[in-house]
């Protein structure tokens, strides 16, 4: 079964993917720094504080689609580091080592860095993509 009827919507679906992934990512940072939507269960150290700043600032920039490609690339790298530092040592399978979110964010952001922000973005409005 072909779903070619979705092809014209692909750029808009890319924008929706960017917005929803970034909004979800943002909540990881707000949890760490603001205790919202729930308190962060671990004490913050320097590395987690830097991660929280990247999650908040990067999440906000990606939601509006500003500087999308470089921000998405940086956040993809952050999630790769998070996966290998925090999860990979606990076993091979992400479903078992708790690294599914880090792995998915890594590759979603890498895709956005390659594909661009989509038409619903500040970058597209400014003619930068």
From TrEMBL:
Gene Ontology CC annotations of this record: plasma membrane
Keyword Membrane: yes
Main subcellular location: membrane
Record bears the keyword Transmembrane: yes
Keyword annotations from UniProtKB, A to Z: Cell membrane, Membrane, Transmembrane, Transmembrane helix
Subcellular location(s) per record: Cell membrane
Matching InterPro entries: DoxX, DoxX-like_oxidoreductase
TM stretches of this protein: 12-34, 46-64, 101-120
Membrane association type: Multi-pass membrane protein
Signal peptide: none
Domain of life: Bacteria
PANTHER family: BLL4328 PROTEIN, OXIDOREDUCTASE CATD-RELATED
Family: Belongs to the DoxX family.
Protein name (database record): DoxX family protein
């Amino acid at each position: 079964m072909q779903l070619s009827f979705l092809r014209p919507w692909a750029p808009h679906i890319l924008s929706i993917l960017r917005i929803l992934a970034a909004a979800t990512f943002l909540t990881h940072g707000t949890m760490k720094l603001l205790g919202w939507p729930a308190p962060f269960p671990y004490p913050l150290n320097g590395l987690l504080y830097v991660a929280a700043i990247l999650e908040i600032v990067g999440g906000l920039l990606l939601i509006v689609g500003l500087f999308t490609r470089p921000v998405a690339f940086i956040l993809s790298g952050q999630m790769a580091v998070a996966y290998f530092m925090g999860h990979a040592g606990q076993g091979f399978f992400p479903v078992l080592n708790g690294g599914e979110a880090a792995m998915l964010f890594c590759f979603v952001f890498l895709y956005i860095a390659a594909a661009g922000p989509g038409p619903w973005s500040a970058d597209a409005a400014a003619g930068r993509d």
